[in-house]
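Notes on consecutive records. When two proteins share a document, each keeps its own sequence and its own token line. Never mix them. Below: protein one.
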Amino acid sequence: MKWILGFLPLHLCGASLAPPRSSKGGFCFPRTRGRVEGANICGTKAGLREQRQLHTIASSGSRAHTHPHPLGGRRTLLAFVLSSEVPVNLALPSAMDKLPSLLARLTTLGATLHTLPDVPSIGRHLMRALRGLLVYDCLSLAWRTGEEAWIWQSTRPEDVPRHYTPAGLVGRVMETGEPLCLPTLADPADVESLSLPGGPPGTAGALILPLSGEDAVRGVLIFTTLRPALLSSESLAVGQLLALQVSNALHNVLLSEALDQSEGMIMALAMAIEARDPYTQGHCQRLSAYAARLGLALDVPPAELATLRKGGILHDIGKIAVSEHILLKTTPLTVEEIAEVQQHPLRGEAILRGALPGHGRLLLPIVRHHHECWDGTGYPDRLAGEAIPHLARIMAVVDAFDAMTTTRPYRRAMTVSQALEGLEAGAGSQFDPTMVSAFVQMVREGRLVVE
């Protein structure tokens, strides 16, 4: 039985990261005298980004251009050990005529990795999927994580805690960010540094590929062989593409975890702000529900529905900077007080921009623009018509409806019928008329329960 050793991260601790993207690119390897001389990345979404980041992967010698990727984490490693019944080495499966099929499988692998929900799932799928795609004796994936590190071994009944400290060749790659392609390992110290727990003894060759973050190498892919001289420039080129796919997939999962942590803190802050004003308690939860129902009626995609729900909670978070005296005032506001209130969308955007990474920033247009008016008379940017982000237009309608149907310090609540008439009166001036029509119809037909 051969061992496949894989190291993966447990979680990411917050950093402002670029939005994750699905992997839909394609790969192209030009030939020169029967050899792979470089790899270009092209395609849609992720592919376009990688094309900018990594125009050509050098495939000659033992060095290659590295590519930055917005990944984060801290200085320990999570490890997984998986077993394989397949005897393998790290040469390409066959000659160049099989390269198009191999590249297609790499593309498919990347797309699949992006659908997996967590790091262990990515690790298990990666270890299985590479059997027959590349041939090697041992594959390792090391990644920086929090203060703890774990090693998971598939032949054991439960997870066993174990730490891994990168040293030797692996430590060099993590420090320099430069890949190493070593067809033959001559130095016993290098062999020893690659003798990882649970792996096969007698390593003869290695390919070590960095997985880079914004400011440092966050992990490595390690392919090792038991026989010398099996590695090649083609192995390096394909390995670099695989490393890019793995980096992107891990980025998605780790970003999601960081976003969940950040959103939890921000949600708690939003609830604390709402608690300052007894007249608006429950407003954010109602808005979250109303916005999602209206978005559903307007055929908003599922991902945007989730953004609407969060936007309902967070839309007024900038009011943390508004005086409680103003929020609870029962008489008309002065010009200066109105100006202070109208700053809350900008302040809310600034709070969330600094606190939420990646996908969390999809909330920013809702927070900034939910007080814009269809006719351009709103604030803070006086946007008009469809220049107003559509999720912000949805939020404007449901925000106004909930405000009208709840008691405020300066007036009593309207009836539902009165509030719907108010929305219809503002359609085409304050509100997007299409969204008003959809919301009014939904309420009158009983498809939205008004709390």
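Protein two starts on the next line and is unrelated to protein one.
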Amino acid sequence: MRLVPPALAVWAAAALALGQPGHRVAAGVAVCVVAALVLLAVASGGRERERAAVLGGGIRRAVSDGGACAAGASGPGAPGEAAEPAGGAACAGPDGAGASFGGGGRITDSAAAPGARKPGQSGWAGRPSRAGWAVVIGAVLLCAAAGGASAGLHGADVRRGPVPGLAQEHVRVGAEVRVTSDPRPVRPGVRGSHSTPATLLINADITEVAAPDGRRTRVRTPVLLMVSPGDDRAAWQGLLPSTRLRVDGRLSPPAHQGERLAAVLRVESEGPPRITGNPTVVQRAAGTLRAGLREATDGLDADARALLPGLVVGDTSRVPPDLHDAFKATDLTHLLAVSGANLSILLFLLIGPPGSALHSERRGLAPKLGISLRGTALLGGALTLAFIIVCRPEPSVLRAAACGLITLLAIGTGRRRSLIPALAAAVVLLVLYDPWLARSYGFLLSVLATGALLTLAPRWSAALQRRGMPGRLAEVLAAAAAAQAVCAPVVVVLASRISLVAIPCNLLAEFAVAPATVLGFAALAVAPAAPPVAELLARIAGWPAGWIAWVARTGADLPGAEAPWPGGWAGAALLAGLTVLA
């Protein structure tokens, strides 16, 4: 648990620093660093005084108790005798308390009485002293400074260049952009008898901007493209990350300060996109795999055809609004996006069932293929990298990869408690790498769910088994209940409602997730080389995928599936309090 406070400090500092002026962030970082250095200096002096007090007390106790002193150089003695360094001496009392005088008069506490206080501890064994607390608080402050500094630097990078200023003036510009995400459709808005046109959202980096006065500037500024493609929707929706485009449109500032976007560019689209640079080889390969999976699912039922690409690679372009609403009502939306469970299933298939690392290597698919332990580790890393590329290296995918590896490690080692520091370390690294994750509700939900699986679920499962429930059923029920208990308050902040069917729907859907994921990835892998085989695998995977969609629709149609709840953080606190009391 030692890494949990630093992780929370990094998270909180990054969330607070995003969107703040640079001078405020710099001042906050400086205050944290200075305070940490003062505390660490105080702790260093305090530990020296405590060490002297401990050693002095041991010497006085040894003398008062009539302990014997053995001095002089001693070589290897008889069995059972301890050898002292040349020129040293040792004093010990009957109770074993004492100290040693090393060469040159140096004093060490090599023999302490059982229960004796050590430097850095108070009078109660294991409890940090004032010096120990100073070190802990100093470390937390340094982590907060690191989180704030990372957020400040990333925020300054977003605000750099002319684009933010042009966005404030809502001017029309021409720009060269590099696509950084897959196009995603937005549900058309309806007001009375009028509806807004279908819109695609595309994340991109502006690499060159032409201001109204004709001046061109080379930049690297993240923006959000809003495109109304009209009859050329297929051409726009087929764009791959790393593709370069020439666009014209009007800039406007983002809706909220502290976002990873410097501006919103409403593209004035007349015809297909004007491509000035093709995507990279890696992105073309990933796009081919994703397109192959979509083609392999063309012959499936509507729900399975829509859900399977989303479950496997996060492609939700085919999910209709009514199915998306059903998944929201049953709290199954995590199955519409890439999650850590997907990667855990794939790596579990490679490494094997629970056990130690060696046992896992012997019992997974790796030994059947003749792969050594080192080769298994390398293959697992390559599989993780391929997962990130195919599912796109966006923050949600990076989060899923990190949390999936942690969950897999928990399954493989059977040491769930020891993985809380691993989860905390993952939070620290990810937030420092991408500070905007600190304000991401998806990241918060992933961390909460993973933490619940590592802490609450084992206890609840044991309690259910003590009451006579079969072990496997107890584990599944405890996992679903624990994840729902910690995530429901966050969902309330976003939706102002609670799902009363979430736990049973998650339980019923859970059994179909693994076969749909494995078969879906198999179809994706073979689609470029053997389309008929991919279609067969997709058809088989369509059965569990269709079951998941049926569970979502049936659960959403039940009377009282959802209940209104006060929104905002006040409603979340109320639900969390009632959950704890229950």
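For the record: The chain has 19 helices and 15 strands.
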